[in-house]
Amino acid sequence: MLANGQKADRAWRKSRMxxxxxxxxxxGPLRSRDxxxxxQLSHDPEVSNRLIQQxxxxxxxxxxxxEFDQKLVxxxx
Amino acid sequence: xxxxxxxxxxxxxWSTPAGQLLDKFLATLPSERPFSIAIYGSALLQLTxxxxxxxxxxDIFSDDDEDLSGWLAAAKVDKARGGFYIESGYPxxxxxxxxxxxxxxxxxxxxxxxxxxxxxDILVGKLGRLEAKDMTAFKRVIELTGHPTAEEFKRELxxxxxxxxxxxxDDSPNLYPENTKRLWREIFRSEIxxxxxxxxxxxxxxxxxxxxxxxxxxxxxxG
Lengths: 77, 223
Prior knowledge:
Chain A is mainly α. Chain A contains four helices and no strands. The longest helix of chain A is centred in the first third of the chain and has 24 residues, at 4-27. Chain A is globular. The N and C termini of chain A lie far apart (42 Å). Chain B has a five-stranded mixed beta sheet with strand order 3-2-1-5-4. Chain B starts with 16 loop residues before the first helix and ends with a helix. Chain B is 43% helix and 12% strand. Chain B has helices at 17-28, 42-48, 69-74, 100-103, 119-126, 132-145, 150-159, 176-186, 194-210, 217-222; strands at residues 35-40, 57-62, 85-89, 105-109, 112-116. In chain B, helix 7 crosses helix 9 (194-210). Chain B is an alpha/beta fold. Chain A binds chain B through residues 18-19, 21-22, 25, 38-39, 41-43, 47-50, 52-53, 69, 72-73, 76, and chain B through 211-212, 214-223.
């Protein structure tokens, strides 16, 4: 069994991975391997939108965040 | 912004009825162990702001949740005795701003540490009932100190925004919303819009602490 700290760390690492995939997706369509991983993470209960957002800031999205969000949301429609 | 600075020193007048009764009670407590007691309600205002303000009792609670009723009975200052008495409650009995402890004063009396909440917090607590005597307390505090102003009190009610939530099913109805409107009309001679003036600014500050609401990134990952 994992200790709480390890669990939190795992959730954070997976969410940061999700953030990295979103940054990749912004630049263009994901490769099939990344797509499969993205789908898997999107259904993972340990991954949350809030943690992904923190991951984006961690990876340096900074002031570009609003523009990034809009671009991703527009891309979906 | 500190709306409580410099208008209350928290000096107790021990010659008031509340002071004398409290003094009598404290003298009966064993000196070999410490007590930590907070005073709230009108008696605090009588002790530290308006010595003429009437109070039916002295409301106190133990800071560490100890039931003080046995000590009160032993000192013969509880309500069973009749006359002016001390009523023991719990920290939960005192509904005030979450900031109340940071602006309260403490007084050491032998082994007893007395916590005196700021009058502003006593007034916030009074809004739960706002009977005629509570309205008088507002008037007297404002007459004597010039505070709280409408803006100061509005700010404190924003900090205490959870007081405006609906009551639990088995609790009495929450009168804070209606009483606040009544207070504004009678004391500040104006109308207050609770949603606009208290709840919305409070929630905005609360959300700022939580961070921005993220879009549904998980859905975007899946698509």
